[in-house]
Each structure stands twice: as C-alpha cells, then as structure tokens.
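Justification of resources, computational component.

The compute hours requested in this renewal are based largely on the per-chain cost of generating structure records like the one below. Each record pairs the submitted sequence with a full structure-token output. That output is archived, and it is also reused by downstream analysis tasks.
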Amino acid sequence: MSASSAASKPVLVVRPLRQQDAFLQLLKQAAIDYQYKSIMRIEPIAETEPEAELIKGSILRFAEFDYAIFISANAAELGIKWLDKYWPMLPADQQIFAVGQQTESILSAYGCTVLSPRKQQNSEGLLQEIPALQELKNKALIIFRGGGGRTTLGDTLQSRGATVTYCELYRRIVVQERLADAQSLLPDCGCLVAHSGELIQAMGPAATETANIPVVVPSERVAEISRKLGYSNILVADNALPGSMFEMVKVALR
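The structure output for this chain reads:
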C-alpha cells in the first residue's frame, strides 16, 4: 500500500471501549478519519459468580503480600473497588507497582504510592527497570489482572524467588458481531491499530488483500504476533501510551 493511498483511508481502531479515550481524541484533533470497532469487551467478575470467592479471598489476605502489581487500567479500577470494600485503609508498608502510566495514574488518584516503568510501558519494562523486583527471595506478590493473561511476568517473578498469587478480576470477551464488522472494514483502511496481542489475534490471520496494510502495535512482542499472523507492514510504537501510538499512526499514513 502506498503512502498516498494509506493517508486517504480511515484508521481502524479495535480496542475495548474507554470512557475517555485520549488516543481517539488525538485522531480527532488531527482530523484523521477513523473507524472504531470495539471487538472486545471487558466483563468484570460479578460478586455472584464462583470466581468472586477467589477474588475475595485474595483481597482479605491483601496485607500478607509484600508487593502488589496492577497489570492494566481495568485491573486498577476493578481492584480499587474490591479493596475499597474490605480495606478502609491500605497497608502502609506495602509496595505497589503498575504496568503503564495510565494504570499508575488511577492508583495514584486513589491515594497509592506507585512505581511504574518509564522506558517500556509493559510487563517487560517492569521486570527490567524496577530494582525492587530483581531479587525476590521470601517475597509474596499479588498480581491484579484479567483472566487468561500472559504468565511471563508471574513466571519471571517466581524465578527470582517470589511467591506469586493472581487475582483475576475480569475476562475479555470477543464481540463476534463487531469483530465481523472490523474484519470487513480492514481491506479499505489506511492502517490497523492493535493495542495488544489479544486484539490482533482476535482479528485473525491476514488475508491476501490485508497482509500489507500497516499495523501499528505497542511493542515488539505484539509485532511478532502480527508477523506470525501474516502481516508484513508492522510499525512498533515506543509504548502503548496514546501519544506514542498516535505518532506511529502518523508515520503509517505518510
């Protein structure tokens, strides 16, 4: 796809709906045409579900953990609701970490002192950049996340000596009707924006007519998933923050 033809076609954004989406706002401000199809929704675990007992058990034991890690903005928002219900005041000597600045902002607004990686806004960055997470003998950690997430973070922390507990607060549900809409739109788009590996995997393998469409991703890991699916024109942003993804979209549309 030539730069001129890409620039004349809309950007396809497929990530879950957010109340205030700074990335979409940047596209609007730049007068970049886009199609937004939220192919995946976040479904919180309801208190009436059996899985809620596991969450409650972890929340009641919260003071037993040396470190707490929140893997996403959704994990932070939902985790705060659970913690607020059972912990009027959080343990004072506990260290809290966030994967990404948006997640950090949510936790900070709640009153937590939070550390997050700066160079890489992902799990790999957390593992590489945070000194406290390098040697974890006799440390207990809890990771707040969605169900079925990657195990790289937990596995690595365990290999460094930690005891790791997962608190899975939500599930990701592919919305088949929106997915079909997104797949039908893709051949006529200037680029596809995939904020996560789960999203590009949900979109499925590239077809002949979509293999060369620019795909903007937040990390080399998601880029590799995209390559395995048959996409050949992949642009890797510095991280998943709105500004970084937006800058790479501009590159894709040149």
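The two ends are 11 Å apart (CA to CA). The chain has two domains: 3-39+175-252, 44-171.
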